[in-house]
Design brief:
Order of helices and strands: HEHHHEH
Mean pLDDT: 91
Strand order of the largest sheet: 1-2
Helix content: over 70%
CATH class: Alpha Beta
Oligomer: single chain
CATH superfamily: Skp domain
Number of helices: 5
Number of strands: 2
Low-confidence stretches: none
Shape: rod-shaped
């Protein structure tokens, strides 16, 4: 806190121009972020549907065991129980792999988006002769809040 106050004192004394950007808002609302979400949804939709199908098949088998288990032969019941256990393990492994792959791709794409945001923020700082741009603040007046300006530039780039 003392360091931040010292920066403000220096800024006031040296007539330093400061800006604030809400990066979290940009990561949510920019057209590039929306494009990222759509690309990931499209890329992983088939695998997601396959997992849902496997879950449904597993539920059907579990329901069958619950419903018909009492009238099944011992060997049929054992075979069905083994099939259910095997499918559960396969579903868990597939789900874990899916989550891991999705997280890796999301992180890759998010990193690219963050680099793009940084470039736009740097360029805005240069264009408007801003000495210091901070990521978020508890309070920032409209005069120093640059989030909408950055968002406008991102929208222009997306066209």
């Amino acid at each position: 806190m003392v360091g931040f106050l010292a920066v403000l004192n220096v800024a006031a004394a040296a007539d330093v121009k400061i800006g604030v950007v809400d990066v979290a808002k940009l990561l949510e609302e920019s057209p590039q972020a929306e494009g990222l979400r759509k690309r990931l949804d499209s890329e992983f939709q088939r695998r997601s549907q396959e997992l849902l199908s496997q879950q449904k098949q597993l539920k059907n088998l579990t329901d069958k065991l619950t419903r018909d288990g009492a009238v099944m032969s011992s060997s049929e019941q054992t075979r069905l129980e083994q099939d259910i256990r095997t499918r559960r393990r396969q579903l868990k492994a597939s789900s874990d792999e899916f989550r891991e792959d999705l997280n890796l791709r999301r992180n890759e794409e998010s990193q690219k988006l963050r680099l793009q945001l940084t470039e736009v923020i740097h360029q805005l700082g240069k264009d408007e002769n801003i000495d210091l741009i901070l990521d978020n603040a508890v309070y920032a007046s409209g005069r120093v809040n640059l989030t909408e300006k950055v968002l406008a530039r991102l929208r222009a780039q997306a066209k």
